[in-house]
Design goal:
Structural class: mainly alpha
CATH topology: Hypothetical protein af1432
Number of helices: 10
Strand content: under 5%
Strand order of the largest sheet: 1-2
Shape: globular
InterPro entries: HD_domain (IPR006674), YfbR/HDDC2 (IPR039356)
Keywords: Hydrolase, Metal-binding
Protein name: HD domain-containing protein
Largest sheet: 2 strands, antiparallel
CATH class: Mainly Alpha
Oligomer: single chain
Length: about 200
């Protein structure tokens, strides 16, 4: 087997690569950005872990999403919480529609994206805006999957004795009512929540 020697990139190419790596290094903070959810072993999960499982859900349900641009959906899932690399996570029970969180997270995303080449920065911000507005089919699904993944983690996690499992039953219902697949998954998540509540009550 023979190998060809790679050509040295041009100055412009080197600069572009370096800027992308700078962004990737900054986004690494998501690995240390902790959420209120607990893993099955009882430690706090990271935003990066939540995002990974959200993307896994998308891949596994691809066959049920015939009319959806699954690549676009995956992109939205990957970037939906990127701003938390700067601002951190706000626990689901503490979120409200008028807390200014969306504007703050968008500004944090713009700060994070300054490292990127302009074309990539524009794409990332546009995908984040699409998710925030939740109007396209892909954004609707990303929002719904996001809520369901959170609910499933609440059930899976080894939580504190005073954990409020009943919170799941009302959480994100507007988002999970917007697509037949989401509604079916919501039923399963609600059933798991109710079973966990019964289990906890019996201990």
């Amino acid at each position: 087997m023979t190998y060809t020697t790679a050509q040295e990139p041009s100055s412009a190419e080197s600069d572009r690569l370096a800027r992308i790596i700078d962004f990737i290094q900054a986004a690494e903070a998501l690995k240390d950005t902790l959420r209120s959810g607990r893993t099955g072993q009882g430690r706090a999960e990271s935003t990066a872990e939540h995002t990974w499982r959200l993307c896994l859900m998308t891949l596994l349900f691809e066959a049920d999403l015939a009319d959806i641009d699954v690549l676009k959906l995956l992109k939205i899932c990957v970037i939906h919480d990127l701003a938390e690399a700067i601002s951190g996570d706000v626990p689901a029970p503490s979120q409200s529609s008028d807390d200014g969180r969306a504007a703050r997270e968008r500004q944090d995303l713009l700060t994070l994206c300054k490292a990127l080449p302009e074309d990539l920065s524009a794409e990332v911000v546009a995908l984040w805006d699409e998710y925030a507005e939740a109007k396209s089919p892909e954004a609707i699904l990303a929002k719904g999957f996001d809520k369901i993944e959170t609910m499933l983690q609440h059930v899976k996690g080894r939580n504190a004795p005073d954990f409020d499992y009943a919170f799941n039953l009302g959480y994100g219902r507007e988002a999970t009512d917007r697509h037949p697949l989401l509604r079916n998954l919501r039923l399963l998540a609600d059933n798991l929540t109710q079973l966990e509540m019964i289990s906890q009550a019996g201990e």
